[in-house]
Amino acid sequence: MYSINAHAKVNIFLKITGHKDGYHTLLSRFMRAEDLYDTITFEPCECESFTIEGCEDIPLESNTIFKAYKALNAHTGDLDILNFFYHHKVVVTKRIPAQAGLGGGSSDAAAFMRLVKKTCNLLLSTEELAKIAATIGADLPFFIYNYPSANVSGFGEVVEPFEEAPLTLELYTPDIKCDTALVYKTFKEHFLSDIRLSSFIGWDQLTSRELLETIHDPLLLNDLYKAALIAYPNLSEVAKKGWFFSGSGSTFFKIKN
Q1: Based on the structure, what is the number of domains in the chain?
Q2: Which pLDDT value is given to residue 250?
Q3: Which residue, of 104, 137, 161, is where some domain finishes?
Q4: Could you tell me if 246 and 169 are in contact, meaning their C-beta atoms sit under 8 angstroms apart?
């Protein structure tokens, strides 16, 4: 068997910087959540077609792992990939909650791509793999590079490692699933015209601890929190004082005492 862990992420801060070609641009600090991860395993199995177990609630065509499989095939034309998955199935052990702002689906797809690169000996650099991944989803390049902490900008394709002491984070995910597309749409409708780039100059140079201990307001740290509260009013009922909001939600986090 071949196996790899697909870690969750949190957004220490997330600022929308603009809107172009139908998509939002951003500047964000992504941090890998060391203690929360899914596991992707390739198990021997004679399969008539590409087979995924552990994600039965997601249609195959919508599954980010399947999208990653198709993207790798289209880019490389490598028959070793096709042959490998006639003799192996993908088994996903899920621990990261869905629609929680933790990047679970993106992390799974990126980990799948990294494991395929290794098992099928693909002659692709990490940079090439990240470019392929970016065609699937905005968060995937961060997970391809697999940095513990990074500043992410543009549409998510610019990933710059950030050297800092790792933080032990406590996560709290209420029973509310936040649709990323709806949260971004709500931001565009209500807050896009309010963007002030000067308000967060230098944030990408501060450590994550400095950011969380200096800027106490989760609404300031994450532009999408305001939109999520409009799209999902119940979030305000479960929010806890001193906790911050990750991505498009619904997970809250804080530094673990």
Answers
A1: 2
A2: 97
A3: 161
A4: no
> Under a CB-based contact definition with an 8 Å cutoff, are residues 215 and 68 in contact?
no
Residue 77, Cβ density class (10 Å: 0-12 exposed, 13-18 middle, ≥19 buried): exposed
Confidence of residue 22 (pLDDT cuts 50, 70, 90): confident
Are the CB atoms for 81 and 72 separated by under 8 Å?
yes
148: buried, middle or exposed (CB in 10 Å: 19+, 13-18, 0-12)? Answer: middle
Give the structural domain span for 198. Answer: 169-255
Selected catalytic residue, list 9, 15, 67, 226: 9
User: CA 159, CA 197: separation in Å to the nearest integer?
Assistant: 19
- The active-site residue, picked from 38, 67, 117, 139, is 139
What's the average model confidence in pLDDT over 159-165? 97
**Bridge partner list, 93:** 39
The reply to whether 78 belongs to the active site is no
**Residue 183 belongs to domain with CATH number:** 3.30.70.890
Same domain, 50 and 143: yes
Q: To the nearest whole percent, how much of the chain has pLDDT over 70?
A: 100
Q: Is residue 9 among the annotated active site residues?
A: yes
Residue 148 and residue 181 in one domain: no
Look-up: residue for tokens 């399969």? 47
The percent of residues in the chain predicted with pLDDT above 90, rounded, is 96
- Average pLDDT on 38-43 reads 98
Of 130, 161, 192, the position where a domain reaches its end is 161
Cβ 9 vs Cβ 33: under 8 Å: yes
Greatest extent of the chain over all pairs of C-alpha atoms, in Å: 57
| Confidence band, pLDDT 50/70/90 cuts, at residue 21 | confident
**151 and 225 inside one domain:** no
